[in-house]
Amino acid sequence: MAVVNDSALLNLAVELSTILQHKNWTLALAESCTGGMAAQYATAIAGSSAWFERGFVTYSNAAKIEMLGVSAATIEQHGAVSEQTAREMALGGLQHSHAQIVAAITGVAGPDGGTSEKPVGTVCFSWVDVTGKISSETKQFSGDRETIRKQAVYHAFKELLLLH
What predicted TM-score, i.e. pTM, was given to this entire model? Predict the structure, then answer.
């Protein structure tokens, strides 16, 4: 994926706002490695309160467990950076908000923290909505910390647009 700039992220957020408002849906975000960056781009748009319900920044494992109800066993067995954890983050975001759709992001933004199984740039995502539709995937991004985080937000927003 090419380097993602602010303009591309804001344009996606505007597209997302149009679709969500048309459906009369609101969005919640459950973020780890992006540290609230997705929520920042969502709320950079005037009037975002019409479609953005809340964000959860659950950087630590304890926060994922306490705020989103992620199972400690899931984190122990699969790791915080896993599709299993991302799915539980998304489901927890849906359960602990009034939103109709949730995107979850968890990964290794670097420059440290990577392993041979999950190198820097590994990011796991999940999306869930009130109809019961849920999906997840793992992507590998490259670049510095900021670039990886922006690519992750871009991907989360892009998939929200494709799903709905």
Answer: 0.97
Q: Give the residue carrying structure tokens 């740039």.
A: 121
Task: Indicate which CATH number applies to the domain containing 115.
Answer: 3.90.950.20
- Cβ 30 vs Cβ 128: under 8 Å: no
What is the span of the domain harbouring residue 15?
6-163
Q: CA of 150: how far to CAs of 31, 114, 128, 145, 156, in Å?
A: 13, 18, 21, 9, 10
- Supply the pLDDT for residue 81: 98
43 part of a folded domain: yes
Find, among 98, 114, 102, 104, the residue nearest to 64 by Cα: 104
What are the two backbone dihedrals, phi and then psi, of residue 147, each rounded to the nearest 5 degrees? -65, -45
Could you report the per-residue pLDDT of 74-105, keeping only the tens digit for each? 999 999 999 999 999 999 999 999 999 999 99
A 10 A CB-CB count for 132 gives 6
**Span 22-43, mean pLDDT?**
98
Structure tokens at 98: 């009034």
